[in-house]
Amino acid sequence: MMILRVQQLTVTYQNAQGHLCPVLDALDLEVKKGEIFSIIGPSGCGKTTLLQTLIGLRKANAGKVIAQGRMAMVFQKPQLLPWQTVLENTLFGYACRGSIKPHIRTQAIDLLTQMQLSEHLHDFPHQLSEGMKQRVNLARALLVKPDILLMDEPFSALDLMIRQQLHNDLLDLWQAHPFTIILVSHALDEVANLSDRVAIFSHKPVSRFTCVPINLTRPRQFDKPSTYQWLAEIERLEAILRGEAVTSGSEFGGER
User: Fold this and answer.
1) What is 1-70+148-256's CATH number?
2) Per-residue pLDDT tens for 6-28?
3) DSSP 86-118
């Protein structure tokens, strides 16, 4: 079952010379309910533009987005309010709507506890490590119980061990209550670890792309055989990015 359909989506921007430059050009894309769908490609090819358009932060010039359910977005930088505590930042979306009901506050505390932040509920952002800040960023998005979670390189600024722990936290939450994740990333190890399918964008304007499955079973455990398979998936993605591998593409068409 498809939870998101992008049909003939076109997005342009105006450059310094005043010319309109297309980023997405009549793009078609579909994402299945409950899957983790990643998007990779060169810097500036339109990955972030797509996420911003999906959630309404950027207006499309043409085409449409058909989504079922609620969306939330996790940004690359946590964007926490420095004068609010961890708990207050997590509840910020609900606070903007008015009073916060007791059961929502309880859910926020439970979620922060799951993310190993129970001892930091009343700390301010300047008292947190970067990994803790990103956990709050993730908790704030998950508290609204999104059907589709958009993630724009949320782990890119973190060191390897913290990044892997956050991957595990995210997968634990996803496996307990599956929701759809659309992840933009430059880290192929991350993409191979998390994803069900990967869309590989080329240079802009993007109109068609290669879409490949990640051939790893879940739950993904890194014993020796599984690690070899994981490394093979990373090498396969690298080869496709370099144009050295031929794929059959997907229902979205592949590269022209």
Assistant:
1) 3.40.50.300
2) 999 999 988 778 788 889 999 99
3) HHHHHTHHHHTTSPPPHHHHHHHHHHHHHTT-G
